[in-house]
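Give me structure tokens for this 341-residue protein.
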Amino acid sequence: MSTNDTPRHDELVVTHAPEGVVDPGLPPHQPRLGDTDPKASKRSERIVAALFGLSVLGSIGVIVAYFAFPPGESVSSIQQSNMFLGLGLAFCFAGIGFGAVHWAKSIMNDHEKVEERHPQRSSDEDRAAAVEVLKEGAADSGIARRSALKGGLITALALLPLPVALPLIGNVGADWDVSKFRHTMWRRGTRLMTDPTYRPIRAADVTIGSVVHVIPEGLHHDELESDQSFMDEKAKAVVLLVRLDERDLKHTEGSYHGIVAFSKICTHVGCPVALYEQQTHHLLCPCHQSTFDVADGAKVVFGPAKRALPQLPITVDDEGYLIATDDFSEPIGPSFWERVK
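Here you go.
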């Protein structure tokens, strides 16, 4: 049937089917309340306009929250900032989404239509007919005569990019010094300490196949100014220490007799990488299954991570305890815009 034909409410539409196949067709059209009741139709318009208005308020809320609740040094302030920004974005996108869906379902024509599909290019007549269908749909939406809905949609779409673009303009009211991600507490001569028992690690005590969770010497509650400083530094400096048979290592740089140390922060989104498979020498991030090969410089062998885990170069001091020879050779954790490599 033609795409411009509109079936009657009591008509059963029969579609084309291959020979020998019974096509049950489409059920009779069921009119909606808004099709016969002008008050119900007007109520649907008000609901759509209200949803677009909710999107506008969400966009404005994101902008207000961005300036009114900047992330501070404390965890609570960061959580508060994320909560208000997240709520604003949720209302911003949900308002447009639900408004568009409700507009289509309650206001636009919902008569069933059937159109044959052909693998070849449509004829010029069919293409012209398709344009007419699009024009019919635009006319059916009533966007030309429903100024309130048109204004609400345009305003919501106009403000929609702001919540995304605003963070790109600049980080107002917050300290986003990217150098904090480039350096940690690890320095030349810093001893490797067990986490959480905080004991120095003698190289001779690390057996093949063993895994040790490590923090730098000096990273202790009693040695830092506050608990927040402790958590900030620990989030960057945590290390996973593994000992392999030295013959299994493809690269020995930065290792000591088969002992290697890598950042425990996944290079995907920053989850802790803490699952070690001794037979394959693989480290697994439990969040998104990024897998790193410890024997090959912790390179990615599976998953969404794009970079190897940064390695902490190590050796031993005069007493045989493991120490760092330098900080990580590159920033730890996920990539960020200002990252050089």
